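Quick review question:
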């Protein structure tokens, strides 16, 4: 199997508009990362230093082109009503052969504890099954990132494995990886 010719660029939930990455939102993304960088730094290799606005715009331009080719699907989470950028999510690792996808996510500091990321992860998983033909959707988290693991559990993913000494966190510390998954059968059972 391969990527569809056209991949939808909008997912709507009760409280969110989840859009394909677009460089027109570079200012909002830059502000969100600046606000949240201290929380992101332990988990996200790209958040070790704050990029300039120009660098952010260039990355988002590249990401939009990659999205259009179906190679990586970065998405932005906007709150309905005021269009505030809540964070980013998407499908950064795609295996069209299975098809199997991994969801990644982060949220802006001020929107913590409000369930936005869980809502987005559920919707993106459903999108992967419905629109992309996924048989399996995964979430990988550092064993030390308890907040990320809670999102996976609340979004209906089951914990499948702990891979010992599997990753280096951005600080260089060796950590375990925790793998969560939902399959097409799991998704059908929850509908």
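Suggested answer, residue by residue:
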């Amino acid at each position: 199997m391969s990527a569809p010719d056209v991949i939808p660029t909008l997912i709507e939930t009760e409280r969110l508009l989840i859009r394909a990455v677009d460089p027109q939102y570079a200012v909002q993304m830059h502000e969100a990362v600046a606000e949240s960088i201290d929380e992101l730094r332990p988990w996200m290799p790209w958040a070790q230093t704050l990029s300039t606005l120009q660098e952010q715009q260039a990355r988002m331009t590249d990401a939009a082109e990659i999205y259009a080719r179906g190679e990586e699907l970065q998405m932005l989470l906007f709150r309905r009503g005021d269009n505030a950028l809540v964070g980013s999510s998407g499908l950064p690792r795609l295996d069209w052969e299975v098809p199997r996808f991994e969801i990644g996510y982060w949220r802006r500091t001020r929107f913590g504890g409000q369930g936005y990321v869980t809502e987005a992860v559920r919707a993106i998983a459903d999108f992967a099954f419905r629109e992309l033909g996924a048989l399996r959707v995964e979430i990988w988290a550092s064993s030390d990132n308890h907040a990320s693991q809670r999102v996976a559990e609340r979004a209906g993913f089951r914990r499948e494995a702990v891979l010992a000494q599997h990753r280096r966190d951005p600080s260089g510390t060796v950590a375990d990886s925790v793998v969560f998954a939902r399959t097409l059968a799991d998704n059908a059972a929850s509908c």
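Why it works: The radius of gyration is 16 Å. The chain has a mean pLDDT of 93.
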